[in-house]
Predict the 3D structure of the following.
Amino acid sequence: MKKKTLCRQVLSSPTHFLAFGFGAGLAPIGPGTFGTLVAIPIYLLMQPLSLGGYLLLVALISLFGIWLCGASATKLGLKDPGGIVWDEIAGFLVTMTLAPQGWQWIAIGFVFFRIFDIWKPWPILRIDQQVEGGLGIMLDDIIAGLYALIVLQVLAYTMPNL
């Protein structure tokens, strides 16, 4: 699909616009990284929530993402378009669950989420290859977010003054 056509589709369809992270997924290189950057202001807005409120909102964003990513991919006629980055947004929000306050923790969470999302250690790669549709698009990033969450929490516990 031509870049101009894709841009036009993404910017004219609410489904694509959201799935593409408000347009961040149109970045010519590293759309997943740009999608994760979009998650930072969303996280900052969610940070004051109670743990229960935060987890509920992350669950709703993730469940909505299963439908959203599946619908966008289907409309585009592609299995898992790289420009769909709603999954990165949800995965980063998983990573930041119970994160300590401060920009350094946001940066650490960002880096570890991107590492796990790109590296795709077991079972992330297997899920990415075998689970289809919106669930497949979302699930590998949710698991990458869980891996990054574990690393972030270990660092916060062992080096709280980072």
Q: What stands out?
A: The mean pLDDT is 95.
